[in-house]
Amino acid sequence: MEHGYLTPLLLMLLIAIGSIALFRRLGLPAILAYLLTGVVSGPSGFNWFSQAQMHSVAELGVVLLMFSLGLEFSLPRLWAMRRTVFGLGSAQVLVTSAISACIALYYDQSTASAIVIGAAIALSSTAIVLKLLNEQDWLRRRHGELSVSVLLFQDIAVVPLLILLPLLATDGEALALQDIFYGLLKGTVAFVGLMAAGKWLLPKLFDEIARARSSELFVLATLVVALSTGAFTQWMGMSMALGAFMAGMLLGESQYRRQLEADIRPFRDLLMGLFFISIGMLLDFQLVMAYWWQILLLLFAVIVGKGMVVYLLLRFSGEPIRNAATSAMTLAQVGEFSFVILALAVNYELLDKQVSTQLVMVAVVSMAIAPWLVRHSAEIGKRMQARVDNNLDDEPEFPVEVSKDLVIILGYGRVGQTIARFLKIEAIPYLVLDMDPARVTEARNGGEPVYYGDACKASILKQLGIRDAGMLVVTFCDSRALEEVVHMCRDMAPELNILVRTRDDKSLDQLEHAGATQVIPESLEGSLMLVSQVLYKCGIPLSRILKRLESERRNHYRYLHGFFSGVESDFTLEQLHAVSLPEGASVVGKRIGELPWEKLRVELRAVRRDGAEVEQPSKEWLLKTGDILLLQGKPRRVERAEQYLLQG
Asked: DSSP of 508-555, one letter per residue?
């Protein structure tokens, strides 16, 4: 690289860093920050680099992205979801592509351009949708499973598209059907050849590399495998990304999959950032301003059209309105692989600059509004369902006689199942509500009283008979839903015993304020159980142990907070710190009650004097030289408190 490019490159990276930080604060995908960087750095901005200059490096990002996608490609998972993947997924891609291509042909686009436009519009953003579904804890809900199935087929559909795109570049000649079949045949031969070689060669190669115990060698071998398979498919007249995908798929079932993914991620993320920067350089803002109304109209048509296709397909397959509408809004945006398709189409001269600019802008804006669409999709789906039948939920029937002995369990994970087994042994009636359809089906087949339903819905809780039950046990740890469920249950059943399981006690006070009878933080309870075993083995009477444990719970696990810090400390947690008062310390001679503890925002846990420790000394305690004060609080506050105690 010439030194003349160093300054623009550094400036471009600084813009990327600032843009990513800003977009993260706004809750927008980092992809949009890279696109903005490309716009600012490219011909429409400062013109530091051209798209052609970035293309060679950026293409490596696509290669590594496809390699990572291949690692995630699981044949067993695909087979388990085959009905929705190949049924709903293929229907969505084919119908959306066909409609979009027909509209493009109507507006005088060539056949090759129409195919590219249809394919680009049909794809949705796997990265954004999966991230948002995971944040909302919707991956296991029905609409989440439907959305993942469609996204999985879209990822598969990218492979034949990568084969077809070079064939569509016919330099103005008519597209011959035999060329398409020949290209698909070459792709099949390459696939079979790589599969055969990879089945025996790659595992042995990585076994030898793993024995060398060199992380550098492992990373280098991963990059070489991804790039060499890409070079092989490019030599056969196909895309490099196709070969990388095949290599990833071959290694996806091996024991090295997680290590490969971890090694490739830094290179992939960096090069994918450069790829999206190069996409941003394709944008010509003069064209954007000239055709802004067409871009907005096309954006509206894409989101509504894709949503309607998904909605109608799901309704035709028998899904309720709520699931169909929620999935439709989740998949309405244009995805990151659309950028790959558009970039390759521009390189093969299949699209002119005006059309590519409009489609890139549509993709950018649709991805920007995708978080809002996904987060509000469930609420809108409910309202649509309510308008049709005034029933917001597919509420199950609970054929269980409610009594004061009935225990209702919300959540049937490992903790919920353990509780249920002990209740069954003691012949205590119980009923379980869970949101995992596969788990509910398995449990019901095993004769368990487990039903599918959302614990956040008052109508379902009423059907459970919560007002007449003896106890409610909440075992899931979704912090967003816990407080809402506890508050709702307490309003419906003021006398109900409500036990809540949490991972820690960060929200203990809030949950107790919402109405929980008892909050059980499993991490702290695990510590107490270990303490009880230690004391019992030391000969302490069981009654005294139980009394101490109950006292600790009653005092909100007071002695399980505040620990002396080490080299590796979590600075978000409270810690203990011992402050020894030397001669001349500013607080020597003062009484504890005279010190501004509320202003210091730390707690005085104890004072040690002459080898004896006094817990919670009185406000009249007179501090002397040599006293050791045990302070508890956040590290910064403890540091300021120590400075005050010593220097004033």
From this structure: HHHHHHHT-SEEEEHHHHHHHHHHHHHHHHTT--HHHHHHHHHHHHHT
| CA 80 to each of CA 56, 246, 327, 615: distance values in angstroms, whole numbers, following the listed order | 38, 21, 20, 60
Cβ–Cβ < 8 Å for 433, 408? yes
Task: Please give the full DSSP string across 479-496, using - where no structure is assigned.
Answer: HHHHHHHHHHHHHH-TT-
* Residues with Cβ within 8 Å of residue 476, at least 6 apart in sequence: 410, 411, 413, 455, 482, 501
Percentage of the chain beyond pLDDT 70 is 77
Q: Phi/psi class of residue 585: alpha, beta or left (left: φ > 0; alpha: ψ in -120 to 50)?
A: beta
Amino acid at 102: C
CB atoms within 10 A of CB 625: 12
> Picking from 48-52, 549-553, 566-570, which range would have the lowest pLDDT averaged per residue?
566-570
CA separation for the pair 631, 618 (Å, rounded): 15
**Closest to 373 measured CA to CA, from 1, 27, 64:** 27
Strand partners, 500: 474, 519
- Rounded CA gap, 320 and 328, in Å? 12
What is the Cα–Cα distance from 521 to 482, expressed in whole angstroms?
13
Per the structure block, which two tokens stand in for 409?
A: 């369990």
Backbone angles phi, psi at 331, to 5 degrees: -105, 15
Predicted TM-score (pTM) of the model is 0.55
What amino acid occupies position 182?
Y
Q: 229 is written with which tokens? A: 């398979």
Number of Cβ atoms within 10 Å of the Cβ of 207: 12
**With 0-12 CB in 10 A as exposed, 13-18 as middle and 19+ as buried, what is 208?**
exposed
| Sign of the Cα pseudo-torsion (318, 322, 323, 325, in order) | positive
For residue 96, which phi and psi values (nearest 5 degrees)? -65, -45
Per the listing, tokens 């060679």 go with: 56
Residues 85-142 have pLDDT tens digits of 788 888 888 999 999 989 988 888 888 888 888 888 888 887 677 767 766 767 667 7
- What digits encode the pLDDT tens for the residues 73-85? 666 666 666 777 7
Neighbours of 156 (CB within 10 A): 18
Q: Provide long-range contacts, Cβ within 8 A and 24+ apart, for 572-575.
A: 572/634, 573/634, 574/632, 574/633, 574/634, 575/632, 575/633, 575/634, 575/635, 575/638
List, in sequence order, every beta strand (DSSP E) within 387-510: 407-410, 430-434, 450-452, 471-474, 497-502
pLDDT at 308: 93
Distance CA 298, CA 366 (A): 11
Rounded average pLDDT over 479-507: 81
